[in-house]
């Protein structure tokens, strides 16, 4: 589906071939005992971890490739739902959403035979919250397969401002899903790569991608990319889905402790909880950003963010449909980049049939990416510092 052009950007990731392909997955049993089974080409290595708030199990498997996209509402018994995807090249993860605390009574692998594939099996029974919490505390600490490797600071073009382009979601976290199966994670990656290509062609800006493949990345790691590369601008790309299917058009969000409206508040809440889908722990991440705005001294940065948001809206006007209120404000965790003007760019809404048709058109994302690139160049050319 993606029309991805190959080009040089500041960060290049090696994507190895993953030999062990996962096939069918299924949930068997009931609320008294539930079994989760994965078919694979060969016997996998695995590590199982427990997470709380909400109750989840994560299964990390190195060198496993998924050939199909997980569909929602696959659960039964003690498993509410499950999803899977890459956390980074060569690092796969399955997340089991649980209906409550469980005890893992058995995990094993059946080796393949000429007639049957290899099988990974995990058996669950109900337990109490204290017992589950004790099991979490007893597990060996470690982030076995979480996230992509840390990026080194940008050294390739110190004479040009660095713009970090963050393709939202990815890997195990598909983001929004259109009625015809279009995935937010694919749209954001396609747009991010095209925007980076446009900036490279302009020759004035050095683009850096937080991800250039279908992998998961924690919100704090996305922020780290901007900080480590000494970014002059951070743009997080999304294509959300909302209950109101009449809502459509590009929307630009800036960071604020107070949401500008209910739509912005709901959007921030969804995006801030995306780490849960990927199985990242949220215990150490704050729910509020009010203190961040003071502690990081972001007043001037916020003014610059708002200035860029307004110039981007003006640049896009007339080329693509805009939301009825194209600039909004919300408490987005991913926009907490210290000292860096940051915006969240909602390309449109997968819940709207007109926007989804636009995403499927042969001309997308050409003009939208070109106009975004020109707005970025204009931002640095005019030193925008307009306030709210």
Overall body shape: elongated
Q: In the CATH hierarchy, what is the superfamily of the largest domain?
A: Zn-dependent exopeptidases
Number of strands: 15
- CATH class division of the largest domain: Alpha Beta
Q: Biggest sheet, strands in spatial order?
A: 11-10-12-15-13-14
The CATH topology of the largest domain is what? Aminopeptidase
Domains (count): 2
Count of helix runs: 9
Instruction: Note poorly predicted spans.
Output: 1-18, 143-158, 282-297, 383-388
* First-last Cα distance: 39 Å
Mean of residue pLDDT?
79
Structural class: alpha/beta
| Largest β sheet strand count, sense and barrel closure | 6 strands, mixed
Radius of gyration: 22 Å
Helix content: 25-40%
Beta-strand content bin: 25-35%
Q: Give the helices and strands as they follow along the chain.
A: EEEEEEEEEHEHEHEEHHHHEEHH
State the CATH architecture of the largest domain.
3-Layer(aba) Sandwich
Layout of helices and strands:
Layout: E1 20-29, E2 34-40, E3 47-51, E4 56-62, E5 64-66, E6 79-88, E7 91-98, E8 102-110, E9 118-126, H1 129-138, E10 162-167, H2 184-202, E11 206-209, H3 219-228, E12 233-238, E13 250-255, H4 262-272, H5 274-278, H6 290-295, H7 299-316, E14 322-330, E15 342-346, H8 353-360, H9 366-382
